[in-house]
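#structure-requests
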Amino acid sequence: MGLRFREEIDLLLGRVYRADEDLEFSTSNDLHIVALRFRLLRQHGFFVSAGTVVCTWRGGSFSTRGLCGSKTRDLLSLYNAAHMAIPGEEALDDAIAFARGHLEAAVNKGELKSPMAEQVSRALGIPLPRSKPRVEATYYIAEYEQEETHDAVLLELAKLDFNLVRALHLKELSDITLWWKALYDEVKLTFCRDRAVEMHFWTLDMVPWDGCSRARIALAKVIGLGGMMDDVYDVHAPFEDCQRFDQAMQRWEESAVSVIPEYLRGFYLQIVRQFNELEGMLKSHEKHRISYLARAVPDAIQIYVQEAKWSNDKYIPTFKEHTEVSLMSSWASTLCLVASAFAEDDVLATEQAVQWGLGMPDMYMACAEITRFRNDVASYQRGRNRKDMANSVECYVKEHGVTGDEAAAAITAMVELSWRRINQGCLEMDRALLPAAARPVVGMSREVEVIYLDGRDGYTFGSDINHIIDRLFVDPVPV
């Protein structure tokens, strides 16, 4: 619902930021309010010091025995707020560890009542600032209804809004599914993952506004094409075929199809034609953007060839070598740029966001790290495809002489640092660019957290996230 009232929320948070004494929310010293205030301000691009949160927390008294409802709420707010930390804020590490320890103990002992028990469990899995807001809404609407003091009008509006947006998403999903079925049948690469729903699911938090259907559809198409490329190089094609496919991609013209093995020709032609169709989705003053995106595909193919060579040679690169290459094959920066490029100008400041993204900002690289490292840790836990090159976990194991679990833990810690760089980037950015430039980055990183939670791979194994898909697409919110 916050998307409906973006300007009003921004104005109100501006008053909070200026410590407007007419607002109790601006001046309260209650830990829950202090932490909530800190989180909301930082999430909306207002820099506020962590000192007030830390001092309020350390000045409080928390018992490890029997958390009452208000203490649990305080700790949950502290835990979620502390995940808005930026590099160098070690005191918030202590806050996370403290809150997490008490919350986990309360869950394990069965001390918490519904709905607080469910809210704590979800946050321990994915902290609130990193969860998909629309998924969280499917739970919170029902939980809010249980509160005796809930606002009936607000509740009804939230339900109606959710179902209206769901109807829009289903229409988009219908269009994407028809497109994907035709493409999948045309290229005849049956070893590729058939994931139309997951493609659309991935887009929902990157460009969440109602007026951005074009961006979500374009983004889903690029995700689908990228997934096929990934499967061709990682799963099926011999190294020699990968090289020939790369030769054609560098020419980027239909006549180059003659150098490609027969079974890949239809796919190559579809890549070129699909990007021509994507250009047709742009308005005349936007069409220059497609050249930036079209260049990204041959660049990605060259990265795939390098990875295929390592796999073919059975070479395990250093962790640094691996990271420099594999971050580009994660598609994170390309997808963020697609999201900005296809968002409608009358909704967001898209041209400025595209120009910002072309500079390959650190936020893009941080998002790529989250994507690559979460994927690799999940692959390590599940067991990777035998044709895949060594992933970052295996490279780290070889280089540092540690166990796989130790390497996975070290890489997971790197993900935390990447999130903090994203937080910092949002605070340093012109706030007018946050929706068009930063939201795709934050949204993609959130998608990754959901897709790879607890070592699952919700894109490769769609059944892993069926329960989430059902909540978003199948089951309407009862009104």
